[in-house]
Specification:
This protein is mainly beta and 248 residues long. It contains two helices and 19 strands. Strand 2 and strand 3 form a beta hairpin.
């Protein structure tokens, strides 16, 4: 499947940040009866899973995200204070388990797995995690352009922000990647994506920096890097991308 290119401007990034903030901080309507959603988490083979970070995301009538809870030893979880609406049931596991969140690339047309009506939830209350592939993005910083010095971050260093995101097929909103492993000569970004999708698109934006993929090419880098990443089908798949940061 071919993924269309998607370019994010600083306005898009700011709008997305405000949208994400509003989603996370939105509060349930206190005038309606609130529900408690309880269920269990299971692996692709059906075994129960403990220590999965579970949340529900309301798709309709408006987006809203519950506070996350962890599944217990028996895989059970309970999410209180859920207002009426249509929801997707989402979960996050430790990276080393290679279990993907079924809500990866969540969009307004996502089929809801739970409907809450007048405080009563319906639908399957089992969160089925998916088989995943590990995406590893290594950002090399040989000249120390991202390194902080002293107690604070200088204005020049603050401008050198690197944002890494993945895009699911047909989705305009990115899945942000956090720098999970800061290193002395750079940083690493790790994510697990569902193996059911054919490919994801990696997008990296670097303010006031030049970035390019490591390799024999001598071409000058740019402030944005984009690449389609086909999802491998073999057992315990892994995708590795190495980017080099330099001065513009």
């Amino acid at each position: 499947m071919r993924l269309s290119n998607f370019r994010m401007t600083h306005t898009h990034i700011l709008s997305l940040s405000l949208f994400s903030c509003c989603v996370l901080l939105a509060q349930p309507d206190s005038s309606s009866k609130l529900a408690t959603i309880a269920g269990s988490v299971r692996a692709p083979d059906g075994t129960v899973l403990a220590n999965i970070r579970v949340r529900v995301v309301r798709i309709k009538p408006t987006f809203w995200t519950s506070s996350p809870v962890d599944s217990g030893p028996s895989g059970a979880f309970t999410i209180p204070n859920v207002p009426d609406g249509s929801y997707a049931l989402c979960g996050q596991a430790r990276l080393r388990f290679l279990l993907a969140d079924p809500c990866f690339g969540l969009g307004p047309d996502t089929a809801p797995s739970i409907v809450v009506n007048r405080g009563v939830p319906s639908g399957p209350l089992t969160l089925q995690m998916e088989e995943g592939a590990l995406v590893s993005v290594r950002l090399k910083d040989p000249n120390g352009l991202l390194r902080e010095t002293g107690a604070g971050r200088s204005p020049q260093l603050a401008a050198r922000v690197v944002r890494a995101s993945l895009f699911a097929p047909g989705r305009a909103f990115p899945v942000p990647l956090d720098a999970t492993r800061p290193e002395t000569d750079g940083q690493s970004y790790l994510a697990v994506v569902p193996r059911r999708i054919p490919a994801v698109r990696l997008s990296i934006d670097a303010a006031a920096l030049s970035i390019k993929e490591e390799g024999p090419s001598t071409s000058k880098g740019e402030s944005r890097f984009e690449k389609n990443l086909p999802i491998p089908s073999q057992r315990k798949p892994r995708i590795d991308v190495t980017i080099i940061a330099d001065r513009p």
